[in-house]
Amino acid sequence: MRIIPAIDLFEGKCVRLTQRRYESLREYDSDPVAVAERYIDAGFNELHVVDLEGAKQGLIVNWPSIERILTNTKIAVQVGGGIRRQDEIVRLFKLGAARVVVASVPLSSPDTFEKWISSFGPDRFCVAMDLKDGSLVTNGWRIKSNIDFDDQVEVLTGLGIKTLLCTDVSRDGTLQGPNTSLYRDLVKRFPRISWLASGGVHSTNDIRSLKDAGASGIVIGKAFYEGTLDVDEVASDWGRAMRIGMR
Questions:
Q1: Is 222 within 8 Å of 175 (Cβ atoms)?
Q2: Whose C-alpha in 84, 185, 187, 205 is 20 to 30 A from the C-alpha of 199?
Q3: Is 227 exposed, middle or buried (0-12, 13-18, 19+ CB in 10 A)?
Q4: Distance, CA of 142 to CA of 199 (rounded, Å)
Q5: What is the pLDDT of residue 238?
Q6: Which residues pair with 135 in a beta bridge?
Q7: What distance in Å separates the CA atoms of residue 44 and residue 120, rounded to the nearest whole number?
Q8: Residue 178 · residue 206 · CB < 8 Å
Q9: Pairing of strands 13-18, 21-29
């Protein structure tokens, strides 16, 4: 089980939203590198970094903070948030990003995404498959797609994609518990995919329930900031499982 702390960036600071509503923005820390180092010191070996302004605008905005995180940390970092250009992907990999998280391009420009896979390899990408009211959403969760979820999973599997991040938007940032039944169903229907769960995690019981559901990993943000989950305790309790998950 991979436990991946999330760092969401807005104007260079660590923030969180609720259900990706920007009017709900709350700042937690002005130094994202210090937050990243806190997670590393606790024992985590992955980070999930999202440029929230980039997700809204369709291009990376928080380059200074992202660059500082990538150049000052020595663990695997996946970066997402409005990535729709190959030059941005090249820059991220040169800075040391382990993976790039994409959502809109695989849906809106599948030919472009296929070229990216040919250039960089499928293992360098994590595709976000975010759901709102049962439909796929893109562009910072603001636009609903007409593409069928199952069909898109099959397409991505055919391209060699092995890891999908699925967020239930209705749970994101609410601390009301994850949609465990969703992930149990996804694992059952698509067992070849490594599913990363995101949204609503509040307690260690939530982590256990997602593990039991078959999720390969969990992205956790607000629960760490709010203290409903203790950073050191989670790293200690799940440390061995995290190391195994990275093999």
A1: yes
A2: 84
A3: exposed
A4: 17
A5: 82
A6: 132
A7: 26
A8: yes
A9: antiparallel
Contact assessment for residue 226 and residue 14, using Cβ atoms and an 8 Å cutoff: no
The three-class DSSP label of residue 55 is helix
CATH number of the domain enclosing 156: 3.20.20.70
Per-residue pLDDT band at 239 (split at 50, 70, 90): low
Contact assessment for residue 110 and residue 139, using Cβ atoms and an 8 Å cutoff = no
Q: Which domain holds residue 178?
A: 2-245
Give CA–CA dist 128/152, Å, rounded. Answer: 11
**Sequence-separated (6 or more) residues with CB below 8 Å from residue 219:** 4, 5, 6, 48, 165, 167, 196, 197, 198
Cα separation, 21 vs 142, in Å, equals: 9
CB 156 within 8 A of CB 119: no
Question: CA 144, 147, 148, 149 torsion: positive or negative?
Answer: negative
pLDDT in tens, 100-145: 999 999 999 999 999 999 999 999 999 999 898 888 887 666 778 8
Structure tokens at 59: 């291009």
Residue 215 or 74, more confident? 215
Counting the structural domains of the chain, the total is: 1
Ranges of beta strands (E only) in the chain are 2-10, 13-18, 21-29, 46-51, 76-80, 99-102, 125-128, 130-132, 135-138, 143-144, 163-167, 194-198, 217-220
Could you tell me how far CA 73 lies from the centroid of its own chain? 18
Catalytic positions are: 8, 130
